[in-house]
Design brief:
The chain contains 5 helices and 8 strands. The protein is of the alpha+beta class. It has one domain: Ribosomal Protein L22, Chain A (Alpha-Beta Complex). A hairpin with a 3-residue loop joins strand 2 and strand 3. It is globular, with a radius of gyration of 16 Å.
Length: 207
């Protein structure tokens, strides 16, 4: 029997293949690869499903399957997918320099005091956490400021309040990226079917 754990799966994007495509083809390529990650994640939960089964509603929100829920995220170098028996959200971002003015569009001063802003990862920690939570409702960026970080109990986790519900989020840093996934009542086991550029670290930012 498979372990009762949720497995967010992260796959590398083969750069030679990706860069040889047109801009439009790249979008489709990343989407297809993210669905490959979903197939693996579902399989680790004990569910066999084809990539074509993962469809989105007209609003862009992932359409649940009979066996569970799913979420994807993709960037030019990595894609992520997660399958879960409960509504779930995942996000991945490359950690890079950013304009500090963006902070006020993502969170308020009280939230930023919960993390160490001397570390670039801190900005993306809050950004990815909120994105992951908002994906559950299919809302996205317009509600970033309605989604509030209320607690940072550890270096790889924090709690977010949205619409009177509190969501626990887990983080992972790897190869210059940070990923966030919403905990859904089961252990979270980050899964790399392919070895990333360097060993993953669960220390995205000191609280």
């Amino acid at each position: 029997m498979p372990e009762a754990a949720v497995h967010p799966v992260i796959l590398r994007v083969p750069q030679a293949e990706y860069l040889a495509l047109t801009l439009r083809e790249r979008v489709r390529y990343l989407s297809d690869r993210a669905r490959r990650a979903l197939v693996i994640s579902a399989g680790l939960w004990g569910v066999e499903v084809r990539p074509a089964a993962f469809e989105k509603e007209a609003s862009g929100r992932p359409r649940p399957l009979r066996q569970g829920y799913w979420s994807v995220s993709h960037k030019p170098r990595y894609v992520a997918g997660v399958f879960s028996p409960s509504p779930v959200g995942i996000d991945v971002e490359q950690v890079r320099p950013y304009n500090p003015r963006l902070r006020r569009k993502v969170a308020d001063a009280a939230e930023w005091r919960l993390v160490d802003l001397s570390k670039t990862e801190a900005f993306f920690r809050i950004w990815t956490a909120k994105e992951a939570v908002l994906k559950i409702g299919g809302v996205g960026i317009p509600d970033l400021l309605k989604c509030r970080v209320v607690r940072v109990p550890g270096r790889d986790r924090l709690s977010v309040c949205y619409r009177r519900s509190v969501f626990r989020v887990r983080h992972l840093c790897f190869d210059g990226h940070i990923a966030a996934v919403v905990e859904v009542g089961h252990p979270v086991h980050w899964t790399f079917p392919e070895k990333p550029g360097r060993s993953p670290s669960a220390d995205p930012s000191a609280p």
